Each structure stands twice: as structure tokens, then as C-alpha cells.
Amino acid sequence: MIGARATARRAVVALSARLRYPSLFRARIYGDPRRLEIHRTAVVNNATFNLSSGTVTMRPWSFFGHNVTVLTGTHDVTKFGKERHRSVPAEGRDVVIDEGAWITSNATIVGPCRVGAHSVVGVGAVVVEDVPPYTVVAGVPARVISQIPRPAPGDVAPGGERPPASLS
Predict the structure, then answer these.
(1) How much is the average pLDDT of 3-15?
(2) pTM of the prediction?
(3) Which residues pair with 43 in a beta bridge?
(4) Of 39, 66, 75, 118, which residue is the catalytic one?
(5) Could you give the number of structural domains in the chain?
(6) How far apart, in whole angstroms, are the C-alpha atoms of residue 26 and residue 61?
(7) Burial, 44: exposed, middle or buried (Cβ in 10 Å; 0-12, 13-18, 19+)?
(8) Are 115 and 98 in contact (CB under 8 A)?
(9) Band of pLDDT at residue 167, cut at 50, 70 and 90
(10) Helices of type H across 19-152
(11) Among 144, 133, 120, residue whose Cα is nearest residue 166
(12) Domain residues for 33?
């Protein structure tokens, strides 16, 4: 798993170096990059990842608009001054972006949470809890605004791909 994260990080860096507008497609990573797992088919554009307090996993065909922020880090609000500044949990605030999920521009995902398969997070939304599969959420905080019809078992999606059996 760690090798896959490192490979994903190298792929993001290599892609950024080859593109005409590298700042538009360069992810910013704060914390240990080994905590970031980006599937080779996922698209992150210029996302910001805070990995201070957990892992971030992007499943196949998930993708981001521009300026998406994914936060695992937090601080203890019951502490003050220097103590609050340094009180960052080491784990427990993981974020998973499931297969085919679309996180639109300027959205913020705050862990711990899971954005379900084939769901959509609206522009500028702030996600602070799990998003069910095949759901559209929007707002601050994000709320369900509609459901996306699930493909019928055996239907062929555009591009010739069949939906995974686990999602049927």
C-alpha cells in the first residue's frame, strides 16, 4: 500500500512537470505523503491535501474540480495558545473518496468521512460527514439535495463499461 501511495505521488509530480500550466494541476500535500493513495485513474487537479491526522484514499475514476481541499488535520479546541497549536491527533480522521465520486471546484472535505461511490459534491460545499453513494450534496454544511439513479444490473455505461457488481 505504501508503494502505491509513493507511486501516486510521483505520478502527480511527473504530470505537473509535463503540463503547460503546472500550477493548475499541482496538488499541495501537507503531512506525510505516504498517507495519500490516489488511484491511477483518479484526477486531483490543484487540490490541497492535509494529511496530519489521517489518510486520504481516492478510488478509481474519482475526480476533483479545481481548488478542492481535503482535511484530515484538526486541533484540540479545549487547549489554548502553544498547547492548541501543537495538539494535532496523529490518526483517526481518514477520508475516502469512493469510485466515480466527483468533488466539484472549491469544495472542502473534512475527515473523518467517506464520499460514496458515484456521488457528487457541489461547488463550494463543505462535507463534514459521510455522503451516501449515488447522492448529490451541496451547501455549508453539505446536505443531500438529490439522488442519482443507479444503473440497472447489466446496463452498459457510456464508454462500454459495465457498472461493478458490488454497486448494482
Answers:
(1) 62
(2) 0.78
(3) 63
(4) 75
(5) 1
(6) 18
(7) buried
(8) yes
(9) very low
(10) 81-86
(11) 133
(12) 2-149
Pairwise CA distance, residues 45 & 48, whole Å: 9
Residue 75: active-site member: yes
Beta strands in 14-115 (DSSP E): 28-30, 36-38, 48-50, 56-58, 63-64, 69-71, 95-97, 102-103, 108-110, 113-115
Q: Where are the alpha helices (DSSP H) in the chain?
A: 2-18, 81-86
Question: Any idea what the CATH number is for the domain that residue 21 is in?
Answer: 2.160.10.10
Judge whether 69 lies within some domain. yes
Q: What is the mean pLDDT of residues 73-90?
A: 87
Domain annotation covers residue 135:
yes
Q: Is residue 166 included in any domain, yes or no?
A: no
Backbone angles phi, psi at 145, to 5 degrees: -115, -20
| Per-residue pLDDT tens digits for 108-140 | 999 999 999 999 999 999 999 999 999 999 999
CA separation for the pair 106, 68 (Å, rounded): 5
pLDDT tens, position by position, 15-67? 555 555 555 567 889 989 999 999 999 999 999 999 999 999 999 999 999 99
- Choose among 25, 4, 3: nearest CA to 14: 25
Residue 17: strand, helix, or coil: helix
Give a yes or no: residue 167 inside a domain.
no
